[in-house]
Amino acid sequence: MTKQKGQMVEKFPLDQRVVHWIGSISFLLCALTGLLLFSPFFDFLAPLFGGKIVAGRIHRIAGVVFAITPIIALIWNFKNLREFLHDITRFDKDDIEFLKGFVPYILNSPGYKYPPQGKYNGGEKLQAFAQVFLGVAIIVTGFILWFDGFFGQTLLQLSVPIHGIAGIVTMLLALGHIFFAAINPRSNAALTGMTNGKVPVEKIKVSNAKWYEQLKREKKI
Questions:
Q1: Residue 163 near residue 213 (C-beta atoms within 8 A)
Q2: What is the reported pTM?
Q3: Core vs surface per residue 146-174: b (16+ CB within 10 A) or e
Q4: Which of 150, 140, 93, 95 has its CA nearest to residue 122?
Q5: How far apart are CA 30 and CA 77, in angstroms?
Q6: Are 24 and 12 a contacting pair, CB within 8 Å?
Q7: Which stretches are transmembrane (predicted)?
Q8: What is the 3-state secondary structure (H, E, C) of 30-92?
Q9: N or C end: fewer C-beta atoms under 10 angstroms in the chain?
């Protein structure tokens, strides 16, 4: 395929996009209701959900949806899920170099040069890996807290802080994710990619050189 200015290439297939938005929306509901249930400081959120009792119900329902999101991904397209997990758990020297230069990347410093990156850069890999790990912690501890009558007191006491800390850290990661996906000029093509699945070839030639070369070898661009 001849490379042309303005050409787009698929980065996020439909299954990945649907799973992403189901997980994102359900987590947002869990986060907001969780904050309301966590501290009186967030009581101003109560009118959004019709009070704390309703918020508690929404928290559980959204939690169930969040928990089954990976199951949807597994059933829908195991191959894509396996490739995604493979990509985010493989770090090489170029990924390390990307993380070393993360501050100038964030600040959009003039003269910044991307280390050669694959489909996902080192920062995206680290964030995705952390979110998978934290997501598992949230789901497991949430299950324990919901069905507290089946578990011992020690496990319950451990689950409370783990659930809260994992939730807060995931919220912070989500805010960073929104910044990079929608605001940072070096990476804001990701938002378009997560809506229509495609990203500009011109952009990945600079920011994801390894993936760009792979796509050329596969004659996809």
A1: no
A2: 0.86
A3: eeeeeeeeeeeeebeebbeebbebbbebb
A4: 95
A5: 26
A6: no
A7: 21-38, 58-78, 128-147, 162-183
A8: HHHHHHHHHCHHHHHHHHHHCCHHHHHHHHHHHHHHHHHHHHHHHHHCHHHHHHHHHHHCCCC
A9: N
